[in-house]
Every structure is written in C-alpha cells, then in structure tokens.
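Sequence only, no structure available. Ideas?
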Amino acid sequence: MYFSTRSRLFRLSVLAFALATLVRPAAAALSLVEAQRIASGDAPQIDAQAATLRAAQQASVGAGELADPKLILGIDNIPTDGADKYNLTRDFMTMRKIGLMQEFMRDEKRKLRSDRAGAEVQKETAILALNKLNLRRDVALAWIERYFAERQLDLVKELAREGELQVTASHATFAGGKGQATDPFAARLAVAQLADRTTEAERNIARANANLARWIGQAARQPLKSPPAFDELSHSHRDLTSNLEAHPHLAMFAPLQAMASSEMALADAAKRPDWSLEVAFAQRGPSYSNMLSIGVRIDLPIFQSRRQDPAIASKLALVEQVRAQAEDARRIHAAEIETMFADWDAAKARLQRYRAELLPLAQERTAVALASYRGGKGDLAPVLEARKGEIETRMNHLTAQADLARAWAQLNFLLSDAKD
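Reply:
I predicted one. Tokens follow.
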C-alpha cells in the first residue's frame, strides 16, 4: 500500500511537470524596433565614441585659457673659489631667488585655440550620431536577413510536403495502371533536391542568427515579429536629397573644415609674438640689501620665411585637402542615395510583377499539368517541370521581397529621425 501510494504520487509529479512544461509561455517575439533598442543599450562602438566625445569636451574647457604660471626658484652668483667659496651669505652678489613667471598669449590665439577645440567637439558629436544611425541600419539588416532566411525555410518545407504528396500520388497512379514506372522515382528525386535546399536554408538561418546575436546577444534566439512595411519610407526623396551637408554621413566635414581653418589661422597668428612677465625677489646676505627683479620676454619671429610662412602654407594645404574631401564625400553620398532609390524602386516593381503576373502564371501552369496527369491525359514529367518552375518563381519572389527590405533599411536610416 505504501509503495503504491508513493508510486502514484511520483506519477502525479511527473504529470504535473509535463503539464507545466507544455503550458509554459512561449518566448516573446522580437520586433525590429526592439532589436534596435537592445543593440543601442549595449554597443561597444557607441560607448567608445561617447568616451571620445567626453574627452574632446573636457579638453575644450581649458583650450582658450592662459598657461599656468611658473614658480621660479634659484641661487645666483655662487662663489666657486677664494675665501667665500660656495658660501651663500658672505659675497654681496650671491642671491637666493624666488619668483613667478606668467606667459601671456594673445587674445586672438586663445580664441582660435578655443574655436578649434569647439570644432573638434562638434566633429566627435557628428561621428557619434553617425555611429548610432549606422547601428540601427546594421541591426535592421541583420534582422531582415534572419527573417527572410526563416521564410525561405518555411517555403522549402511547404514545397517538400507537397512533393511527398506527389510521390504518394505517383505510386498510386502507377499501381492503378496509369502512368509510367519511372514516375515515382522522378517524384522522389524532386523531393531529394528540395532536401538540399532545406540544408542550405538552415545554414542561412544559422549564419543570420549569429550575425544578429553580434548586436543583441541572447535575444537573437527569440522568434521574430512581423516586419514593417518595406514599401513605405519615413522620408521622401526630396528629404533625402536636399541639404546633404546636414546628413549625419556628411555632418562631420563642417567641423573638420573649421578645425583646419583654425589651425591655419593659428599658424598665421604665430607671426605676432606673445610675451611673458617675470617677477622675482632675491635675498642676499644680512649685510646687503635684498633685490626685486621684473622682466619681460617677447618672442621674436624674425625668420618668418623659414618658419612661420612654411607652416602657414602647410596648414593652407590641409584646408584645401579637407574641402576637397568634403566635396568628394558629398558627391559619393548623393550618388549612393540615388542608387539606393533605384534599387528600392526596382525591387518594388519586381515584387509587384511577381504578385500580379509571374506567381499566378506559374501556379496555373502547375495546376493544368497536374490536372492532365491525374486525368490520365499526360505524363508526370510536365508536372515536375511545371512544379520546378513554380518553385523557382516562389523563391525569386522571396528574394525580391528581401531585396526590397534591404533597400528599405539602407534608405530608412539615412537620417537620424527615421520613424520605426
């Protein structure tokens, strides 16, 4: 009795555990927007650039300030021979000195240094904004690859199930005296070929999942939600092709040019000398008077043709370099936008053609061939050929959808205020 009750309790525990496992809630589906949010919360490249920006901000605080004053300590005129050798108090010329020295940079130079530091902060800010935008785009592309890899596998499995039914039908038809002995083998060969596509689709899913995990970690194991509308953009063609200099991809060039211009102006300002003031108190022996010294030091840029002028020419060349690089980047960016729009428009047109013409025709061809075969008026070969054509058409339709999604991701995240 004891063992029977114990055995019953054990079976009930196992049953309760199995039921709990069955009713355990499924993992929440992962939307594209959620994937981007997760990636933004843990992105080393964003953290690195944010640290670079903080460094530039801190460096800009003191960029326009005067240099720290210098403390002067020394002993002048120490005897090195005679009766007062190395004595610090008996010779009237020996002095123990303490003082301060302050360098005074011209206001013009201080302002230029401050302007350059401010431009560097703007540059790092622009790079951070671009990195964030590129992160959203890259995560979207990884999410899209995973989504369509799974759709490809679903399609191949669906076609494989249809193929198995065709194998069964070919066996039944041959057993009923209709059809040829080679029909079942041909049908099985078609199913085997789909098995190869299944392997390829599973490999694509594994690779896409690994790429998505790079951005969002363990969340990449979650099932995916339905995608956004890939035929709708958050920005118009005009929005994306006007005011290109304000695009995150080009926004860094304005502060880069400002930095180069400040460097050139600083090189030119070096022709106008800075100066420093020095004040020192000198203590002599008790029998002698103490001394106060005041001095001014002024830079003498008297060899400008060999020093300042070449430096100015060098900085001017850098200004021209940055200006040319900015123009080249603008042209490249404009061409890329037009190329992306061309890809997006072509993918939409291709997708519409598949939906309106190619898919219905392929399905109708398969249906006619299958009806003829089932009615005993045709062979299996035309059916398999029609079905092969339908498979390729459906695969190409899925590829067109993926192409549209990739073009959408490239365009939709060109500007930082893209809607999700």
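DSSP finds nine helices and four strands in the chain.
Hope that gets you unstuck.
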